[in-house]
Design brief:
- This protein has 227 residues and is an all-alpha fold.
- It is built from 14 helices and no strands.
- α12 packs antiparallel against α13.
- The longest helix is centred in the middle third of the chain and has 17 residues.
- It is globular, with a radius of gyration of 19 Å.
- The termini are far apart.
Length: 227
């Protein structure tokens, strides 16, 4: 398995200083940016994953995340973004440990993409995610919705998944009074994705909660609903 040092060297070998400067200005979070594009990171990750055990991948992901280099954190998340990952307890524990460190949407969304697979694999982990809905950090609260998006997207949910969907909609309802723009956008995003599969449920939610939602969230939620 590739070592953390070799992986970081590979990322640094693709450095683009001009793009890195633009990324730093765009993300506005003080950390190292290398200017490496996501498809380039994905190609490296595919090579690192080949033939590696799950535990080796978890160890590499942990080291890359701890470097606090933007592209290395993206790579860490991509190392663990896989539907079938067994055993996955350590992978989930690592992803969950990243959540309190979220400080921007970009890295959070990559990590949430990995986490959502682990939630679908073991929905009992929703109990842990529910705690995040009450966190002081907006990024942690937001992660609870971004990571549970699969339940908004199931086309043919089973009864247990419908119950989980209603549970998460309860979290969304709890966020209506949260005036942070990123929280409102995440709530609208969750409802928008659900509207493609259960438009009547979204209409009912908006009839009950829409008046209290910020306009941007309400518009996003209703984007795919017919008049």
């Amino acid at each position: 398995m590739t070592s953390v040092g070799c992986a970081l060297d590979a990322l640094r070998g693709l450095r683009d200083d001009a793009r890195a400067a633009r990324m730093a200005a765009y993300h506005k979070v003080p950390r190292v940016y290398l200017g490496v594009q996501v498809p380039e990171i994905a190609a490296l990750v595919a090579a690192w994953r080949a033939g590696a055990t799950v535990e080796a991948r978890v160890a590499l992901a942990a080291g890359l995340w701890d470097s606090d280099i933007h592209e290395a954190r993206v790579a860490a998340a991509k190392l663990l973004t896989q539907a079938r990952l067994r055993p996955d307890e350590n992978a989930w524990a690592l992803i969950a440990s990243w959540v309190p460190q979220f400080d921007s949407w970009a890295l959070a969304d990559h990590a949430c993409a990995a986490g959502s697979r682990r939630l679908v694999a073991d929905p009992a982990r929703l109990d842990q995610v529910e705690v995040w809905t009450r966190a002081p950090s907006l990024w942690v609260r937001r992660a609870a919705l971004v990571m549970t998006l699969p339940w908004a997207k199931f086309s043919h949910p089973k009864p247990d998944d419908l119950a989980r969907r209603d549970r998460i909609l309860g979290w969304v309802a709890g966020y209506v009074s949260d005036r942070d723009r990123f929280i409102q956008k995440a709530a609208g995003w969750w409802l928008r994705d659900l509207s493609r599969h259960d438009p009547d449920r979204v209409r009912a939610f908006l009839a009950e909660q829409g008046a209290a939602m910020r306009p941007l969230a309400r518009r996003e939620a209703a984007r795919h609903l017919s008049a």
